[in-house]
Sequence to fold (530 residues):
Amino acid sequence: MLRYARLLGVEMRVSLALAAQYRADFVLEGVMSLFWLGWNIVPLMVVFGVRPTIAGWSFNEALIVMGWFTILRSLLEAAINPSLLAVVEHIRKGTLDFVLLKPADAQFLVSTVRFELWPLLGVAGGAVLIGDAFVRLGQAPQALHVAVAAALLLLAALVLYSVWILVISAAFWVVRLDNLAYLFNAIFDAARWPSSVFRGFLRVVFTFVIPLAMMTTYPAEALLGRLRLQAALGAGLGALVFASLARLTWRRAIAHYTSASS
Amino acid sequence: MNRLYTIVRAYPTLLRIGLAEAIAYRAEFIVWMLTTTLPLIMLVVFAAAAREAPIGRFGQADFAAYYLATLIVRQMTGAWVVWELTMEIRQGTLPLKLLRPLHPLIAYSAENLAAIPMRAAIAVPIAVVMLIFTGRAHFTHDPLQLFTFLVALCGAWLLQFAFMSIIGTLGMYIESALAVFDLWMGLFAVLSGYLVPLELFPHWVQKVANVLPFRYMLGFPVELLTGGLTRGGALRQLGLQWAWAGAALLGARALWRAGTRRYEAYGG
Fold:
């Protein structure tokens, strides 16, 4: 365990050094992440500019969902996207062999090759959005509710990561799948809206198949003290099932891997 | 004159190659097209917002018509030259294209254009669904406007391609051309009417959007199709669109010239 923690430290240092190497890029990316933070709220403001509530959510409440979405997407862009895009490249070129030869768990190595620093600004930005929403609502979330929301955040990160592992596993069979990543990003974008906006078929998909509801709407409801206990438990159970499914699929995919050169 | 002749002779072949490539990588291609989910998400959001009463002149059916038209225009005006260019510049494969007796941007345009039939194969069924579910009342019946729509669609593609070429060519000057493109797409999403119909913005935003090129890449053809414009207004804006397209193409050419002069292939 300690060994893996040290390994993680090394990987992070390397990523930081790599990012700082291209200074103009580094600064530009920082400025850009600040810009996106503000720009992303524009659609929300337009929609709520014409209606006080939509599907049972007021602007401030929807802002909390937006805050969670910002936090999660930042985590995705900082820790998950860069690494897994690198893996697809490894599989295509056949250099994954070098990763598999290393004396550590391949899934761990593959998931930690690269981190981006700037998206982490978004985590702070999301927290500011949530804080701002609560100030304007004139209430403060209870400690218990905050704890539940934090737990849900961890579960959501786990699910996101699992979805990604599943995508990568698919790359072993179909090779060029980096655009599947874009597809997932496009679908994930729906999570910025409260899930009650969606009805019928889409709601079922976003609750059970790609559990977007649990990633952003549930934590927001938890903070507002509206989340039902069984929904929270269901989310926890679902996340664990998802994660073990991903791990199993990864093991099978690795066993299936025959390298590009052979 | 001789160069023009080369282009005219080579272009049909280039188109055929492009189409063959699009068909060869069809799975990838379809996944790319499916990533255009944003109009559908926005449609659901606005349908929820307009459930009780219309917003401005937009009822639920108007929103459906607007966003489905957005989806169609977006599919039909898609290009990807910016990714291809930045990748070729970074990996040093661009000199191969520079050696050919044909301007690389022209070759790219053929590749990008050749995918249109595949895109139409997706867009046309959407158009049919649109007609069946939202009814003809939400679309323009004016033949002049329909014709203008087709011309505007070509103009929108040209604009898209030209600006993508400009940003891609920036890759010869700076490393972060794709970051610039991200910024561009962010501005595009809001100021073109892609996320939200421009009519729902405050007046001063609309005025700004009318001058910038973004609206002419998407919102303008969509408004033509959904009948949001008068005849005179449509023709005037069509002129503006093509003026922008011409300026952007000239800009791309100038930037390319200056760029190739300073470009030294990596690893070459």
